[in-house]
Amino acid sequence: MTEHATGRAADGSAGDADYGTIGAGYSRYRRPDPRIAAAVSRALGDARTVINVGAGAGSYEPAGALVTAVEPSASMRAQRPAHLPTAVDAVAERLPFDDGAFDAAMTTFSVHQWSDLKAGLREMRRVTRGPVAVLTCDPDLVREFWLYDYAPLVLDTEARRYPAVEDITRALGGRTTVEPVPVPADCSDGFNEAYYARPERLLDPGARQACSAWSFVEADVAERYTDRLRRDLDSGAWDERHGALRGQPSLVGSLVLIRAVP
Fold first, then answer.
1. For the whole model, what pTM was predicted?
2. Domain regions of the chain by residue span
3. SUPFAM superfamilies annotated for this entry (predicted)?
4. pLDDT digits (tens, 9 = 90+) for 36-93
5. Contact 117/111 with Cβ under 8 angstroms?
6. I need a labelling partner for 19 at 20 to 30 A (CA). Which of 27, 79, 88, 196 fits?
């Protein structure tokens, strides 16, 4: 799910990751998880009209609402299922809608792509009468995941790209809550922590490509990281250190849902 305002790539991607290149198989690996979707739906409440900013392929859009999707990447817009509305080609920092046009607003795994976080969040607040829901990761917690032992530059990149939670709440204003979102062991949305109990999945190049932070690491570095993980899985060293996670039903990691109401 991508957003940005300047320097847009050929397919319209405008963040620091080119989704025209890395997003081809995104919808195959990044399928919305129903338990995370339920948390987003609760945050939106009974909103009838919802704007989804940085909408990507449409993950987590509430089925019972009239959704207006905004997505600058042509590659991501093309992956939206036929039953979802066509996304508007626009960016968070300049939303082409009137003040108070929507009951609620949402953005999922997108704010770290925006060129101007404050401007994008102000725009979401401007066009929204009710709650604004932001699904993101807390950069202070990203490095606590076991993958940091294997791919430190990948998680350093994630921690650098995700904005601080307090910066988001301050920009949104109003009454805000920050809710940790447990990641299920069989999570269908393949971000890095989704594989906390299934480390073998991160040996799949497609799974890694669907996590944009991997695209910031040189190919030979990523290969060294995955080779080390593969060796530890083959030898049993990973299970000696982390095997208990395989039986853990969920992980409370860096995933958070921020909700702000006027």
1. 0.88
2. 19-261
3. S-adenosyl-L-methionine-dependent methyltransferases
4. 999 999 999 999 999 999 998 888 999 889 999 999 988 889 888 888 989 999 999 9
5. yes
6. 196
